[in-house]
User: Which sequence fits this backbone?
């Protein structure tokens, strides 16, 4: 049965998985980066440490990074499901996961500066909901760290200084600028989720949603697939490297989505995800049986 | 990789240059945003002895408290250092720090402070919270836990072979400036290329 307790238990496990185990595609991309970097370089040393850390976190079932981020989830649910119950269950799960040290108490009252102590707060966790035709509930979770969230940015085209017009070449120019602005501060090598179009809210919503895509997938829109490939090549020629130590591995993935826009606006929104690209997903059938997804 | 024992002597610090790998053993203290502001509002005599000659670690750990009241670092990687740029040089001078551990590097004001006071910027690998927590052998005590909460409190810790890299030194050397300058040249080249 899909009771509240069933939801809470499943979501605690979902959070544990996200916080302590990296998805296989991310591990593979980090390994490929390590092999690419010169022996004895700081870049290679950083990636060796990162991969040691990934192994250790999984073995100890402990957080990969102490900044366990904002839990952001995309929930698809069948007609008749209570969104309020799902929201309450996720909030409960965040508190339990914090008590179990899968998460750090990571919510601070903005006005008083006091930590709420239990990991939950206003808009923490943050959930997106979508009703669908399937009978099951699917939850896709990311843990979005603060350091990388701080280097996220929204450009408004045209951008005169970067000579970026309202076309895909303009998009390429601002995206490369954002990577240079970020340097190693977002914990490079990162993954970029990008949205072209939309407004200031929907742009960031979609750019974060792009982070759910597996690194090895190909964009179904041919011109966006070309843009992603070109951006990967260019960004890795910037020489920023892991942690900003210099090197050839600056980004692990770049994923671009599109929303429609008003005639007056042309936003390019970039969400930067650190190398600790923590995501996990689960599907719950009407009987409450969980299937873990990648 | 050079093994160094905390507290550090000034001449050792002044000998180290950008690019050197270092393993630290001894006692250090954590402190981040709220701590840096607090350290400058007044001279905090109670924490000063734990800072003199040692290093401050920009870290907001995940901490577990055992039934006997003792604490353990569960995850303890560095946080972004640049937020402490307005405070860092003064904190170093006021408390006699020999170094700062963090990630992402710091600005010109801190770089000048490192030269003046004889201190280093030591980069830990961001996100490597397990590798670094393993090097934390003991939590000695904590300051301002109630007021600041777990991530922002000042934790006094004993570390063994804590791995860091010198990325800013006492001779105004900064790996971060080098990499940034190079990446800006590369960006110019890539933006000049045809679409």
Assistant:
């Amino acid at each position: 049965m899909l009771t509240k307790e069933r939801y809470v238990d499943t979501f605690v496990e979902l959070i544990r998985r996200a916080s302590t185990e990296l998805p296989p595609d991310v591990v593979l991309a980090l390994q490929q980066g390590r092999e690419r970097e010169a022996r004895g370089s700081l870049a290679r040393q950083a990636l060796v440490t990162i991969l040691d850390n990934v192994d250790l976190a999984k073995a100890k079932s402990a957080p990969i990074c102490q900044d366990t981020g904002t839990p952001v989830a995309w929930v698809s649910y069948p007609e008749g499901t209570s969104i309020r119950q799902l929201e309450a269950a996720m909030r409960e799960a965040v508190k339990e996961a914090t008590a179990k040290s899968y998460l750090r108490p990571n919510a601070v009252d903005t006005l008083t500066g006091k930590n709420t102590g239990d990991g939950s707060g206003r808009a923490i966790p943050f959930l997106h909901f979508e009703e669908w035709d399937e009978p099951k509930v699917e939850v896709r979770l990311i843990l979005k760290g603060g350091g990388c969230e701080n280097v996220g940015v929204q450009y408004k085209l045209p951008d005169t200084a970067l000579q970026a017009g309202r076309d895909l070449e303009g998009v390429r120019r601002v995206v490369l600028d954002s990577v240079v602005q970020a340097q190693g501060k977002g914990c490079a090598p990162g993954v970029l989720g990008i949205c072209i179009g939309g407004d200031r809210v929907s742009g960031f919503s979609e750019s974060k949603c792009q982070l759910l895509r597996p690194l090895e997938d190909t964009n179904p829109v041919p011109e966006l697939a070309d843009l992603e490939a070109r951006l990967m090549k260019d960004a890795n020629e910037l020489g920023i490297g892991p942690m900003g130590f210099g090197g050839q591995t600056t980004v692990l993935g770049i994923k671009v989505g599109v929303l429609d826009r008003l005639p007056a606006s042309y936003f390019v929104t970039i969400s930067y995800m650190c190398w600790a690209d923590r995501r996990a997903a689960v599907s719950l059938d009407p009987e409450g049986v969980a299937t873990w997804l990648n | 990789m050079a093994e160094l024992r905390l507290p550090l002597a000034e001449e050792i610090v002044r000998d180290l240059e950008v690019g050197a790998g270092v393993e630290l053993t001894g006692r250090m203290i954590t402190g981040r945003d709220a701590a840096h502001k607090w350290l400058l509002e007044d001279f905090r005599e109670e924490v000063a002895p734990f800072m003199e000659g040692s290093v401050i670690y920009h870290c907001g750990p995940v901490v577990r408290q055992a039934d006997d009241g003792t604490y353990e670092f569960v995850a303890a990687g560095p946080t972004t250092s640049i937020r402490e740029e307005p405070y860092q040089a003064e904190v170093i001078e006021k408390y006699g720090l020999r170094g700062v551990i963090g990630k992402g590097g710091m600005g010109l004001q801190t770089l000048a402070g490192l030269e003046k006071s004889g201190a280093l910027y030591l980069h830990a690998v961001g996100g490597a919270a397990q590798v670094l927590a393993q090097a934390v052998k003991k939590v000695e005590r904590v300051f301002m836990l109630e007021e600041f909460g777990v991530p922002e409190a000042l934790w006094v810790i004993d570390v063994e072979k804590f791995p860091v890299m010198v990325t800013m030194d006492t001779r105004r050397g900064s790996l971060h400036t080098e990499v940034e300058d190079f990446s800006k040249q590369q960006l110019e080249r890539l933006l000049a290329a045809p679409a």
Chain B touches chain A through 49 residues (CB under 8 Å). Helices of chain B lie at 10-15, 33-41, 48-51, 85-95, 108-117, 129-135, 145-148, 175-192. DSSP finds eight helices and nine strands in chain B.
